[in-house]
Amino acid sequence: QVQLVESGGGSVQAGESLRVSCTASGRTSEISAMGWFRQAPGKEREFVAAISWSGGSTYYGDSVKGRFTISRDNARNTASLQMNSLKPEDTAIYYCAALRGAWAVQRMRFVTNPDYWGQGTQVTVSS
Fold this sequence. Notes:
Blueprint: E1 2-7, E2 10-13, E3 18-26, E4 33-39, E5 46-52, E6 58-60, E7 68-73, E8 78-83, E9 92-99, H1 104-108, E10 116-117, E11 121-126
């Protein structure tokens, strides 16, 4: 089993930056990719970003390209999401996810039920 714990959410003004992190524990050797999803009230969960655990390949959702950057620190089993130029529409609960197996980073964008989920962290952007 793998446990994921998010941290770093909060409230900011539009145009500001925020960084959220996800730390994995347990059988972390199983992880092939980690990613972030978000869900705003009344909306479906949305893919935000993903990163492979070995090679650092990254993918981003269209709505965050150019503003968000995902990174990893293998030594600390942590994936972080740097969010710049935040907009009110970025307001959501941000969930960390992890996948096992081959092609994990490529699959992350399409999965509805990752192998592991974090508990979520609230990000609120006010105008």
